[in-house]
């Protein structure tokens, strides 16, 4: 037994020496080799596109809705804030475009129609709440993605970036007041969504369900048996995730494609389903911590939230943040990724990884040789 222990220790020392003496690959720490993209943890932003409305419009919003906040541009979040996950709320437009150019809240404030050219063109739009909270740093999905891809080209080798897409529609209450009614998320709109993403993001920079699925296996079986790509393989790439759990919303996207064959997005699924690769549990506290840890150990990609809705910002309480980080969820979303954003709510709350790094070795499932190594 003593000889086995000594041999094991010698092997570990030799391996460490080889890794540290081999020199960096493509400018990155060699000890990052062998780590998979689901064995790291990153901070992401919630409603990453969001911009608060004008003062005149804010007077017609409830402060309790927590709509008075703004994120910097997406490239600034990647570069200055170290964010590696973003979320876009996507609204389907009419075939002719221009469905959302006259928000009711602007009309009530005596303001004219929106003048951004993207708003008048056909194509999917990015906004939080049509007619009431439409402020965005990039109006069209393709415009947002061009910003993301342009930043990526200037910063090659970055850790993979997860893009959550929450599929939304107009509020029936606003429709009754004269606001527009959005088209449904049907096969036509989903095909358009996939097409718009592929029109901007090169195929070699996309991690899709087809990337992971193995012959004769479901997507879930492929993920749990063969795993996600390595971090090195995933550098400079993007993974798109559907931020909707409602089966009615997902049904057209999964129709005839139980393993998401040919699709771009991973659906928010559940263990045991053929399409299960990405799971969400937005509250990481209590019994949910152990549930998330189990999912992470098994090989799923998991998203949780460090704060919602602005509870931590108003109190400075970091209980939920600590639970999120300890859960091992690879994607931890926040509204406050850097200091100062919570100041208007009376606290200095900030959600960031220890050491203020863009990503770290996952505390739950990372291999031993990853611990403490800077990965980007």
UniProtKB/TrEMBL annotation:
It comes from the Bacteria. GO terms for molecular function: phosphoric diester hydrolase activity. Residues 1-22 form the signal peptide. The keyword Ribonucleoprotein does not apply. Keywords: Signal. InterPro entries: PI-PLC-C1 (IPR032075), PLC-like_Pdiesterase_TIM-brl (IPR017946). Transmembrane segments: none annotated. GO terms for biological process: lipid metabolic process. SUPFAM superfamilies: PLC-like phosphodiesterases (SSF51695). The keyword Protein biosynthesis does not apply. This is Calcium-dependent phosphoinositide phospholipase C. It comes from Actinocrispum wychmicini.
